[in-house]
Design brief:
The chain is built from 15 helices and 7 strands. By secondary structure, it is an alpha+beta fold. The strands form 2 sheets. The chain has a 4-stranded antiparallel sheet with strand order 1-2-4-3. Strands 5-6-7 form a 3-stranded antiparallel sheet, with no helix packed on it. The protein is globular, with a radius of gyration of 30 Å.
């Protein structure tokens, strides 16, 4: 059962939770089971639930084929805790679900989470006034300005003659008042958010992104303060990755020639180096995509079936990150890509493949909610899998957006030539 695709919009995670419960209740096969010589009708074993729900999640466009059996067990634990299911004695409320023969059933009604109503209005955000063409400054006359000789034709002679005898006022060179850094920041922020809203096909970003908390300085830094490889350069070196983490990442990225240690590498050395990197990222206080931007990244999952749309949306959203987060994300994704491509590096885990290992190791330190979200792990897996496959494009500055903003700023800074008499007559 593929279910319907939950597109972008407010409270997407809640809608996904309710959709998954409804699909599970309507599709999970129920039958008679025998336990201790007693029959129980309309129930299912834990392992049967794992089998069926795992198949559902893997075939559902909202989650995808990378969902693991272990993640399915974790979701069923949350189903038991939230009384979506109960054991045959009516017990629920704990996450003690195991992949075994224990029998469960559905209660008369599984509780769906209420979708909050959108607020009637949002708090107004102060928008600095943009200069209008009427807010002009006439250019000061300058003496002794070198002039190129002009060959007068009849039309130009008549125009100059008319000005000289007072029939037509001399033209004025006018320009807008200075575009301040504050205006530049506001234009970048407002156009970035408008671009994101358009990509996601939303009428508003209310309930998806708290725009008041975004810093325009982060956007400008992420666009312009980069090295030749497009990786963000930080002004405060204290925000850099620790030297020992960078050394471990370089070692793996350039394996087997990347070790700075002038000594032979012991068997399993590469696993210890990978664990060093993994431990650092897993102990971060906040995921790289930040708690603040969790909802907007979850909403991008609703357009993943359109790869170019999802890629551009992720490009824009990654510009909103603090520069130190964007740099760490860039370095981590580049490392994962190098590990995928390096055929010489030994398996980093004997039980699972490299791709699955990367997703399981880093998904929660890339995307995670500050509050407990029941589908958190599945959503993180879906997003990080897509990012791993498209990281080179995703972590570029979105070209269309940059050109639009720079063209707009260039237009605002242009000098305008105005013939007051004809202009006023035309406007009237």
């Amino acid at each position: 059962m593929e279910g319907k695709i939950i597109g972008p919009g407010p409270y997407r995670a809640t809608k996904l939770w309710n959709e998954t419960i409804q699909l599970f209740r309507s599709g999970m096969p129920l039958r008679r089971h025998w336990v201790h010589f007693r029959s129980h009708d309309g129930c299912f074993s834990a392992s049967e639930a794992v089998d069926w729900l795992h198949g559902l999640l893997k075939g559902n466009h909202n989650f995808g084929p990378d969902v693991t059996r272990a993640q399915t067990v974790q979701l069923l634990k949350k189903f038991l805790k939230n009384h979506v299911i109960e054991d045959i004695k009516g017990r629920w409320g704990k996450e003690d679900f195991e992949d075994n023969g224990t029998l469960y059933r559905f209660p008369p009604s599984s509780p769906l989470k209420p979708v909050p109503k959108r607020p009637l209005h949002t708090e107004n955000i102060f928008i600095p006034k943009f200069p209008n063409w009427d807010d002009y400054e006439e250019t000061a006359a300058r003496d002794n300005v070198p002039m190129k000789p002009i060959v007068l034709n009849s039309e130009l002679w008549n125009k100059r003659h008319s000005i000289a005898i007072g029939e037509v006022h001399e033209c004025k060179l006018i320009r807008r008042r200075e575009i301040t850094p504050r205006h530049v920041e506001h234009i970048w922020k407002s156009m970035t958010l408008a671009h994101l809203q358009k990509i996601l096909g939303l009428k508003s970003l209310d309930g998806v992104l708290d725009t008041k908390l975004l810093k325009a300085k982060n956007i400008l830094h992420n666009v312009y303060q980069v090295n030749k490889q497009g990786v963000v350069v930080l002004e405060d070196k204290l925000e850099e990755l620790p030297h020992w983490v960078l050394s471990a990442m370089k070692c793996l990225a350039n394996w087997p020639n990347g070790s700075e240690l002038k000594q032979p590498m012991y068997p399993g050395f590469e696993k210890d180096v990978f664990k060093t990197v993994a431990d650092y990222f897993q102990k971060l206080k906040e995921p790289l995509l930040t708690f603040q931007l969790y909802d907007v990244f979850v909403n991008i999952l609703g357009v993943l079936q359109k790869q170019h749309v999802a890629t551009e949306a992720l490009q824009v959203c990654c510009l909103l990150l603090p520069p130190e987060n964007r740099r760490k994300l860039q370095l981590l994704m580049r490392l994962i890509g190098r590990i995928f491509m390096n055929k010489k590096i030994p398996p980093l885990n004997n039980a699972i493949g490299t791709r699955t290992l990367m997703v399981q190791t880093f998904s929660r330190c890339i995307l995670c909610s500050a509050d407990e979200v029941d589908l958190d792990e599945l959503l993180a897996t879906k997003l990080v899998t897509f990012m791993m496959d498209n990281y080179e494009e995703i972590l570029k500055v979105p070209g269309r957006l940059q050109k639009s903003v720079e063209d707009h700023l260039a237009h605002l800074r242009r000098v305008q030539v105005r013939w007051p008499f004809s202009f006023l007559q035309f406007k009237a």
